[in-house]
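Supplementary notes for students who missed Thursday's class. We covered one full example, reproduced here. Read the sequence, then the structure, then the short commentary at the end.
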Amino acid sequence: MFRSLNSYLIDFTGLVVIGVLICLVSAGGSLASGLPFQIPASVLQLNTIFISILIEALPFVLIGVLIAGFIQIFVTEEHIRSLFPKNRFSGVIVSCLLGACFPACECGIVPIVRRLVSKGVPIYAGVGFLLTGPLINPIVVLSTYMAFGNDLRMAVLRVAVGFAAAVIIAFVISMMFRSSQLKTESRQTAAHCAHSGRPSPFSEKLFDMLKHAVDEFFDMGRFLIIGALVAALVQTY
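Structure (token representation):
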């Protein structure tokens, strides 16, 4: 179920190296002034945008991986089955409604949906949750209302169009993928969890949740860094 101590030491070493590199990049402007050659202004701008995206996104990713760890340890497949109806169209509607009530950004919701799908949530329901969560959650709707000069019409249009698009996309996915192809991991985890007949104490479950959160963070962190770099390149050049 969990990786060896050596793999965690390797991850910790990688985290330290990444942290040092980020510190060096964030100090790029001051370091560049001491170099014998001149670094182009666009490179320094790229550096600033890259760091700003990372700093803005990391807290939401951390929240997302903690919620994903909680789902992995404390939410069972029975809870999932009782929450989502078996009917495809009803499942799409329920997932989109749940996502619309869940205040999460694009960065934080990905590990959450990934863990839900591995727990047995149908892929189409995961897609519906993934689309509506960052798009029409209450915080985003309120921000839209205020950004357009307290225009209720714009906020309502965002909710209506966003919800309709999410339902259509999720329903198309439900026609393409009718089962949970990504549920294998959850079954393997459950098999490891069931090796002892007694229920685990809360402190052990909490520690296991943090372990899963660490694993999820390193799985998602690489994509965050690559995405931040690509976004910085696009904004700069």
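Commentary. The mean pLDDT is 79. The CA atoms of residues 68 and 212 lie 8 Å apart. If anything here is unclear, bring it to office hours.
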